[in-house]
Amino acid sequence: MQPLNLPLRDWTGLRVWVIGASSGIGAALVQDALQEGAWVALSARRIDRLQAVAGGHPQALVAPLDILDTQAWQERHAQICQQFGGIDLIVFCAAEYHPERSWEVDPEGAARTLQTNLGSVYTGLSTVLPAMLARGSGGIAIVASVAGYLGLPNASVYGPSKAALINLAELLYVDLRPRGLSVYLINPGFVQTPLTAKNNFAMPALQTPQAAARAIHRGLASGRFEIHFPRRFTLALKLLRWLPYRLRFPLISRLVHP
Ligand SMILES: NC(=O)c1ccc[n+]([C@@H]2O[C@H](COP(=O)([O-])OP(=O)(O)OC[C@H]3O[C@@H](n4cnc5c(N)ncnc54)[C@H](OP(=O)(O)O)[C@@H]3O)[C@@H](O)[C@H]2O)c1
User: Fold this and answer.
1) Residue 258 has pLDDT above 60, yes or no
2) CB proximity list for 234: less than 8 A, separation 6 or greater
3) Which of 42, 50, 183, 188 is 20 to 30 A removed from 247 (C-alpha atoms)?
4) Is residue 2 in a domain?
5) Is the distance from the beta carbon of residue 73 to the nearest atom of ligand 1 less than 6 Å?
6) How many A from CA of 20 to the centre of ligand 1?
7) pLDDT (mean) for 109-137
8) With pLDDT > 90 as the criterion, what percentage of the chain qualifies?
9) Is the Cβ atom of 94 under 6 angstroms away from ligand 1?
10) Containing domain of residue 174, as a range?
């Protein structure tokens, strides 16, 4: 079968912009891409962390960015394009997560999380798409989550933001693939990062950020649309998603602390 996207097998000289590159999965992706010969722009707010991840690599460009600052996106984009001559792949990997039950959600915090996890992707798309569409090539990789597959207590705002990203990636694929662009949807299971360090429950099939980066790399190299891992966990959740609500809800309640 034909892959749904352009397979990214050769990373030599690929110009990659990673949003959320200062820790966790984003940082591991940066190191993987640099090792494979890509040029990588690293964005997030903590400059010291970005510099540590870049490790002085000659093909790394530290490009600090607060993704809630819409003006800054244009400035960073211009800077990267000037240095690299363009962008072949943007990876939307930044997010925030606050474990909270529905009755604990504060509306201001919810708005901020939605803007960080979802709104910023629209800002990023409006920043990079004009040049990619004009060229008729480029890759958009969106890191969502299995938390977007189905409603899970504790992910009161994070879950809906990730469900929206899955929907967004699907419609982007239909919109952009005929115009020569590739759209990759990345749905990780649990990965050991600062984001999940807040969880006070046992996380099944927990992976290292390096293993996650390798799984993402393999998925991109195969030209998959959805890259989900580890499969023993993600396939179980996909199955749960297809159960009738009458069966699904009691199972989910059993998984979550009262
Ligand atoms: N860990 C998991 O189990 C898991 C599972 C499924 C999906 N994911 C997804 O994977 C992605 C990476 O998460 P992670 O686990 O690696 O978490 P992480 O280590 O906490 O990384 C989050 C990244 O987002 C950046 N970020 C947050 N707010 C930002 C802002 N306003 N402006 C710029 N950058 C911002 C952070 O950088 P600064 O703080 O330096 O700005 C950091 O680089 C996220 O989309 C997450 O939802 C994670």
Assistant:
1) no
2) 146, 187, 189, 228
3) 188
4) no
5) no
6) 6
7) 98
8) 95
9) yes
10) 15-255
Over the stretch 80-119, which tens digit does the pLDDT of each residue have? Answer: 999 999 999 999 999 999 999 999 999 999 999 999 999 9
Atom 46 (ligand 1) nearest CA: 95
Cβ-contact 35, 214 below 8 angstroms: no
The CATH number assigned to the domain holding 233 equals 3.40.50.720
Q: Assess if residue 3 is contained within a domain.
A: no
Residue 178 lies in a domain: yes
* Ligand 1 pocket, mutate which of 193, 229, 233 (most atoms under 8 A from CB): 193
Q: What is the pLDDT of residues 187-234, one digit of tens each?
A: 999 999 999 999 888 899 999 999 999 999 999 999 999 999 999 999
Kindly state whether residue 48 falls inside one of the protein's structural domains.
yes
Closest CA to 17 of 6, 33, 4, 28: 33
Q: How many domains does the chain have?
A: 1
Question: Can you read off the two tokens belonging to residue 73?
Answer: 């996106």
Query: In this predicted structure, what is the pLDDT of residue 255?
Result: 78
pLDDT band at 257 (very low <50, low <70, confident <90, very high): low
Residue among 131, 100, 91 nearest 220 (CA): 91
SS3 189: coil
